[in-house]
Amino acid sequence: xxxxxxxxxxxxxxxxxxxxxxxxxxxxxxxxxxxxxxxxxxxxxxxxxxxxxxxxxxxxxxxxxxxxxxxxxxxxxxxxxxxxxxxxxxxxxxxxxxxx
Length: 100
Description:
The chain is mainly α.
């Protein structure tokens, strides 16, 4: 298990917000932790998969989409806070995210 520091959490948050702002062609400053990625930004599952791959590459993580999918069945992603929390958990636990 990797330690999640406040610096890493902020880095992950910034990466996610920047990604959604660019992909959804919206002003980054309009995205908050309460923003709904699907309803407010028009994101889709393919964007989410790409973001997982970017995160895995950036942090040298070996994660399987199947593990993330199982976690997401139990934990809906309704706000950007949910998304940031999930990516922090991916960073910390990798494929063991479903055991948490």
